[in-house]
Amino acid sequence: MDNNGADDEKNIKVWDIGGQSIASEMIDKYIAGAQAALIVYDVTNMRSFDNVQDWLQVVKRVTKNEEKPPHTALVGNKTDLEQKRVVTVEAHNTLAKKHDMMPMYVSAKTGDSVLMLFRQTVADLLKIVLSKADQEADIVVVEGEIQSDAREARRRVDHSQNSNVCNVM
Ligand SMILES: Nc1nc2c(ncn2[C@@H]2O[C@H](COP(=O)(O)OP(=O)(O)OP(=O)(O)O)[C@@H](O)[C@H]2O)c(=O)[nH]1
Ligand SMILES: [Mg+2]
Question: Which family does it belong to (predicted)?
Answer without folding.
Answer: Belongs to the small GTPase superfamily. Rab family.
